[in-house]
Design brief:
- By secondary structure, the chain is α/β, with parallel strands linked by helices.
- It has six helices and ten strands; from the N terminus they run αββαβαβαββββββαα.
- About 3% of the residues have low confidence.
């Protein structure tokens, strides 16, 4: 998959070439390495096994039970975007096969929605990656265009347009583009430290010894 393209400036270092490495490091390592509140709520789970995604965030805020904003967002999105949607954790089927096909045709790389989706077997067959807080068949209205492109807050994370989103089996993180290079380097350092720990564990040391954990608490 081609790398996403982000504006490059002193405040926003290039992300080109990092796609595979960020996905390989994974959301848990990126979160721990970042030391920032970049983790989206743990209730957001992949709708099919093996799904991974990385792209630019396009934030969307929906009225509960209404998915018109998602149709508008698909039309507005650029290739390489991931829709990150605050649907108020409502158990409605905001998204399904038709919208996934429409999104893929525009180069959208995935969907992260605090709300429900349906047609999950078809989403897997299409290979369109989705993270949601519900799988739900309850339908939606189409009367509110919501808000697109403005920051949204999901849990402790604020998601802004142009943030770099990585999602996998463990969860979802949303990183400011200006922090990605630093987080990547910190993630590599964390990975190297863990590899050293693995060697020590295989040689017979315990986690109590390696992490100097207290025995009497």
């Amino acid at each position: 998959m081609a790398d996403i393209v982000l504006p490059q400036s002193a405040e926003n270092p290039p992300v080109a070439g990092l796609h595979d490495d960020l996905v390989r490091l994974g959301t848990a390592t990126l979160f721990e390495a970042s030391k920032l509140p970049i983790a989206l709520p743990s209730r957001l789970r992949p709708t099919w096994p093996g799904a991974t995604a990385m792209g630019r965030a396009l934030p969307v805020a929906c009225v509960a039970g209404d998915n018109l904003a998602l149709h508008v967002a698909i039309e507005r999105a650029q290739a390489g975007d991931i829709l990150v949607v605050d649907a108020q954790n409502a158990p409605h089927g905001y998204w399904g096969e038709v919208m996934a096909v429409a999104a893929m045709a525009r180069g959208i790389r995935g969907l992260v929605i605090d709300g429900g989706v349906r047609d999950t077997a078809r989403l897997e067959a299409l290979g369109f990656p989705v993270w949601s807080s519900h799988v739900a068949i309850l339908g939606t209205g189409k009367t509110s265009s919501g808000v697109i492109g403005q920051p949204i807050v999901l849990g402790t994370a604020t998601v802004r347009e142009g943030d770099v989103v990585v999602a996998d089996a463990d969860g979802v993180v949303s990183m400011s583009a200006s922090e990605v290079a630093r987080i990547h380097q910190a993630g590599l350092a964390r990975e190297a430290a863990e590899e050293a720990h693995f060697e020590r564990l295989r040689a017979g040391e315990t986690t109590m010894e390696i992490y100097a954990l207290p025995r009497d608490v």
